[in-house]
Amino acid sequence: MVATGLRKTYGATPALESADFSIRPGEVVAVMGPSGSGKSTLLHCLAGIVQPDGGQVRYRHQEMSAMPDAERSALRRGEFGFVFQFGQLVPELTCLENVALPLRLNGVRRRPAQERAAQWLARLEVDTVAGKRPGEISGGQGQRVAVARALVTGPRLVFADEPTGALDSLNGERVMRLLAAAAKDSGAAVVLVTHEPRVAAYSDREVVVRDGRCRDLEQEHAA
Ligand SMILES: Nc1ncnc2c1ncn2[C@@H]1O[C@H](COP(=O)(O)OP(=O)(O)OP(=O)(O)O)[C@@H](O)[C@H]1O
């Protein structure tokens, strides 16, 4: 994915002024920078959640802003995975059902979806909470369930916005170690927004956003 010259303004607030970004297949890139510098806005523009006011996001030779909404949604469901600061699991569903949900939405039948979900829960070392609801588990377990849910569909690109932000450093590192290892195993690239150097240490490369500006010197190698 390659993004160039991204701009986004909220009312009178410029969130992104000129952001360049690139990521190669299988690469883990940490997006760092001070609070309010535009990191989340950059991630949302890259993921097609927010439409930038200017600039381009190219993914596999397609310009995302030129795609019809339905096509962009299909791309998100099929190729992207998401992890947010507070897992955002569905509270009424068990952890197993939460992880199986993206597969069910993609048309996979219940049995195989739940089997694959169980494998991912084990991979993230949270198989013991499979039958519990999100309200009955710890924050660290919830984030590992959220990582399993993000990876269960085999995405090519995972967007993680402060995935360890609500955790103490020990749990944060465990989530990050498992996320980085699982992404490497499955060949997924990860865009990781964080302000914690210990979390960024799990990335292959760091880019810094300052006042809505972000330079990326590796663009020519991007996918
Ligand atoms: N939906 C929104 N409506 C209005 N202003 C917004 C919105 N989202 C972001 N902003 C503003 O845009 C700027 C960049 O915000 P953004 O959340 O991208 O920064 P950030 O680097 O991710 O911050 P943090 O590290 O604190 O999460 C900030 O000034 C913020 O207040």
TrEMBL record:
Residues 1-223 form the ABC transporter domain. Keywords: ATP-binding, Nucleotide-binding, Transport. It comes from the Bacteria. Coiled coil: none annotated. GO terms for molecular function: ATP binding; ATP hydrolysis activity; transmembrane transporter activity. InterPro entries: AAA+_ATPase, ABC_transporter-like_ATP-bd, ABC_transpr_LolD-like, MacB-like_ATP-bd, P-loop_NTPase. The keyword Nucleotide-binding applies. GO terms for cellular component: plasma membrane. Pfam families: ABC_tran (PF00005). The keyword Transport applies. CDD domains: ABC_MJ0796_LolCDE_FtsE. PANTHER family: ABC TRANSPORTER RELATED (PTHR24220:SF685), IMPORT ATP-BINDING PROTEIN (PTHR24220). This is ABC transporter ATP-binding protein. It comes from Streptantibioticus silvisoli. The lineage of its organism: Bacteria, Bacillati, Actinomycetota, Actinomycetes, Kitasatosporales.
